[in-house]
Amino acid sequence: MALLQISEPGEATAPHQHRLAAGIDLGTTNSLVATVRSGAAAVLEDEEGEAIFPSVVRYGNDGVSAIGRQAREQAAEDPYNTISSVKRLIGLSAEDIAASSASMMFQLVETDSTVPRIRTDAGPKTAIEVSADILKSLKARAEQSLGGELGGVVVTVPAYFDDTQRQATKDAAKLAGLNVYRLVNEPTAAAIAYGLDRQETDSTIAVYDLGGGTFDISILKLERGVFEVLSTAGDTALGGDDIDQALVSWFVGEHDITVGEDAALQRSLLDQARAVKHQLTDANEAQFQIEYQDKSYCSSLSLETFRSLVHVLVDRTLKSCRGALRQAKLKKTDIDNVVMVGGSTRVPIVRQMVSEFFDQDVLTDINPDEVVAVGAALQADVLAGNKPDSDMLLLDVNPLSLGIETHGGLVEQIIPRNTTIPVARAQEFTTFKDGQTAMALHVVQGERDLVRDCRSLGRFELRGFVPAVAGQARIQVMFQVDADGLLTVSAIEKISEVHAEVQIKPSYGLLDAEIETMIRDSMTHAEQDVAARMLQEQRVEAERTVAALDAAMSRDADEFLTASEKQKILDAREYVVQSGKSDDAEAIKNALRELESVSEVYVARRMNASVGETMTGKNIDSYQKQDNPS
Asked: Distance between CA 112 and CA 221 in Å, rounded?
């Protein structure tokens, strides 16, 4: 089977031209940027030799007043203007954020906007804008270190990120002035950093990623150099931050301290907890000490107590590991390698418990803080065209959903947005009216529920199939997108096997700004679209029910119904017709229920007559002989 040739976005035009590229791990707690030099990937450091860049931004009246390590150190002084763990917010609605932000020290601006904004002295800030400020600093570090402008970057995202979160990450990178070659799943980047993509044999890999604010476990299948995600599980609100919080809870319990709404005290406690956690990586005991209200509080935390506090949290991660294995239909013994990712996997008890769970030594040779950025850098180097002979297969995604128009002007999505290409998806449809011998197919692109709000890509017809009653025909529609984004849509009627197809280039004529506008509109009008879809579906159901009823009553209504029964059904039918002209989906649904209720007697009599006609002239013995012909 031949593989499709993929033309990558940054492919060099000159044989010895080297393009500057970088991989960025945009983390919840910390971020890193890495690049490939002299064939080896390495993280880039700042002027003070620090590679880790805390994902923290402090805002003042004139904009960003501090960022990175400096902002984190000043957090206790100005907690409400210092935004951290913003990755937990990106791509979420205000309702989602309100439900998940109990431990985050920020205030949302009251606004009618669909995009939630955080109150700061520099004005309202979205999670995208805060992330963009972090990315700008990482871009500046890379360009200063490499001595030139970046041609492009690979940015990593959690495997569980949905389309909205992925697009929000791309928007942040664009706002930061970065050319994004591709978003890559963090577990895939980690596996590539270890060179697992270059193994001679196929393998199954578990990537255990416990970061500052999130945990996820991904099961990857490597086959012929191509990674496939078999399953993912995790917790978007579990990470090193929760270990810190467990230490804080232990400490305030020891001294009966009431934290309340004191944001400065909360910051001080968390900073001290983080320091204690780091000390216990190599020591058997650490001092937890703070100054509060002119008093000094101090407790000695033993490694044994620390382990007991952390054990409960690691157990939660192992439950996710079991779930991921079940979802992938695998056993622990099927896992060939376990890769440890995230700074929180430095904690010895975490490594120990994960190793015991999978019954094998875990991979920790590469700094767990850096492994994702290193893998992203390797991919960025390939995508920049610096390794034209590389056999690493990197797959692109389609920017917008592809679908087909169904009755009532509704869109049925066949290939969702951000699906990796090349891809092929099929779905079966049927006819709406009795005796149909042809079907018009309308291919559309977009994220809205109604055809009128999407972009038309093309139309074609399927003709000449055998006429049948409505709903009996089986028409399979196949969407195939190759690596260059060329879409082929084909349709075949399964009974008569008539076939038709059309080729379309779905991305033609769409600028990035237009794609972003379409996606933004889908978010802005999400509630309206849901309501519009429900209304159209009810109208289609009403039309279908009335058509079926009319066909039946034209044949035998007078045979099975009295005049009064017939009139009740006709009155209920008229109520459905009139309701179908309204914009009230619930009214249409109620009208259909009423029609169904008054038609029950008619349906039962027709069914009894049909069964009686079938059994006329036959007895039980004849049916037994049919069932047992021998």
From this structure: 44
Q: Per residue in 592-601, pLDDT tens? A: 888 888 888 8
Residues 516 and 580 in one domain: no
* Closest of 214, 203, 123, 212 to residue 165, by C-alpha: 214
The one-letter code for the residue type at 428 is E
Backbone phi and psi for residue 148, each to the nearest 5 degrees, phi listed first: -175, 175
pLDDT tens across 540-555, in order? Answer: 788 878 888 888 888 8
Question: In this structure, what are the phi and psi dihedrals at residue 381, rounded to the nearest 5 degrees?
Answer: -65, -40
Both 76 and 144 in one domain: the answer is: yes
Residues written for the chain = 630
Is 80 found in the same domain as 221? no
Q: What domain count does the chain have?
A: 4
Same domain, 186 and 222: no
CATH number for position 549: 1.20.1270.10
The CA distances from residue 498 to 429, 473, 504, in Å, are 14, 12, 21
Q: What is the mean pLDDT of residues 264-277?
A: 84
Residues 437 and 355 in one domain: no
Asked if residue 494 and residue 427 are part of one domain, the reply reads yes
**Rounded to an integer, what distance in angstroms lies between the CA atom of residue 287 and that of residue 274?**
12
Q: What is the pLDDT of residues 477-533, one digit of tens each?
A: 888 877 545 678 888 888 888 888 776 644 333 444 554 555 566 566 667 767 777
Query: In whole angstroms, what is the distance from residue 175 CA to residue 165 CA?
Result: 15
Cis ω for the linkage preceding 348 (within 30 of 0): no
Task: Centre a 10 Å sphere on the Cβ of residue 114 and count the other Cβ atoms it contains.
Answer: 13
Q: What is the mean pLDDT of the chain?
A: 80
89/193 Cα distance (integer angstroms): 28
The candidate with the shortest Cα–Cα distance to 533, out of 593, 596, 452, 428, is 452
Q: Are strands 285-292 and 295-302 parallel, antiparallel or unpaired?
A: antiparallel
Question: Which domain, by its residues, includes 143?
Answer: 18-194+369-390
Is 137 in contact with 56 (CB distance < 8 Å)?
no
Q: Tell me, yes or no, whether 381 and 349 share the same domain.
A: no
Say if pTM beats, i.e. exceeds, 0.85.
Answer: no
Q: Are residues 43 and 170 in the same domain?
A: yes
- Positions annotated as catalytic residues are 25, 87, 186, 209
The CATH number of residue 444's host domain is 2.60.34.10
The span from the CA of 385 to the CA of 17, in Å, is: 9
Q: What is the DSSP code (8-state) at residue 87?
A: G
Distant-in-sequence, close-in-space partners of 575: CB < 8 Å, separation ≥ 6: 591, 594, 595
Residue 625 lies in a domain: no
CA angle, corner 533, sides to 529 and 538, nearest 5?
A: 150
Contacts of residue 421, defined as CB under 8 A and 6 or more positions apart, other chains included, come to 395, 396, 397, 398, 481, 482, 483, 485
